[in-house]
Design goal:
Layout: E1 11-14, H1 21-34, E2 38-43, E3 46-52, E4 57-64, E5 68-77, H2 90-109
Antiparallel strand pairs: 1-5, 2-3, 3-4, 4-5
């Protein structure tokens, strides 16, 4: 059984302009929380974000530098993740793409 052929891809995006770590962390946190994610800083450049629905949840790691940020799968419940081929339910794609888009919007607002 595979999860409909969808893959838990890692998202890697560039950050435009000169932003310090504090501004980047704030942008990521505001973006994630606005979509219902809970965010926990792990160290100076890594955060853990979790989103839950009634019967599913997803946790991702978000690492960042002044030049880029990466959203990477960490764990899930009821999303049928299969580590052999990195397959997962489509809900993963929706949640992560929405998060990525919102982070990009927040980054544009930060000077």
């Amino acid at each position: 059984f595979t999860a409909c052929g969808h893959r838990a891809e890692t998202i890697d995006n560039k950050i435009a302009g000169n932003k310090d770590s504090e501004a980047i962390e704030k942008s990521i946190t505001l973006a994630a929380r606005s979509l219902g994610w809970t965010v926990q800083p792990l160290d100076g450049q890594t955060m853990e974000a979790t989103i839950k629905s009634i019967d599913e949840s997803l946790t991702v790691l978000i690492t960042y530098t002044p030049q880029s940020y990466v959203i990477q799968y960490k764990d899930s419940i009821n999303l049928d993740f299969d580590a052999r081929d990195n397959s997962i339910k489509k809900q993963y794609i929706r949640w992560v793409e929405d998060l990525d888009e919102r982070i990009q919007q927040e980054m544009k607002r930060v000077k």
